[in-house]
């Protein structure tokens, strides 16, 4: 009793696989962007703002 070949698997699940992959990729990208990148950029901007204020205060006192 031979086993029937698996045919049409890619065609049948192609759109499901593509949409799942894109959906997970976009979700992971958004989670990284809003969960890590933007808070890190805000922290970096706050640091440089504090540094610039310290430079201006030092320049005014001299």
Automatic annotation (TrEMBL):
The organism is Mycena venus
Which protein is depicted? Cytochrome c oxidase subunit 9, mitochondrial
Listed GO cellular component terms?
mitochondrial inner membrane
Single biological process term from Gene Ontology = mitochondrial electron transport, cytochrome c to oxygen
Q: Does the keyword Membrane apply?
A: yes
Q: For this protein, what is any one GO molecular function term?
A: cytochrome-c oxidase activity
Keyword annotations for this protein, in alphabetical order, are:
Membrane, Mitochondrion, Mitochondrion inner membrane, Transmembrane, Transmembrane helix
The UniProt transmembrane annotation reads 14-34
So which domain of life are we looking at? Eukaryota
Q: Does the keyword Mitochondrion apply?
A: yes
Where in or outside the cell?
A: Mitochondrion inner membrane
């Amino acid at each position: 009793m031979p086993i029937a070949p698996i045919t049409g698997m890619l065609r049948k699940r192609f759109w499901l696989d593509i949409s799942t992959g894109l959906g997970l990729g976009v979700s992971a990208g958004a989670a990284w962007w809003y969960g890590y990148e933007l808070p890190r950029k805000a922290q970096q901007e706050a640091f440089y703002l504090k540094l610039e204020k310290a430079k201006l205060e030092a320049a005014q006192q001299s």
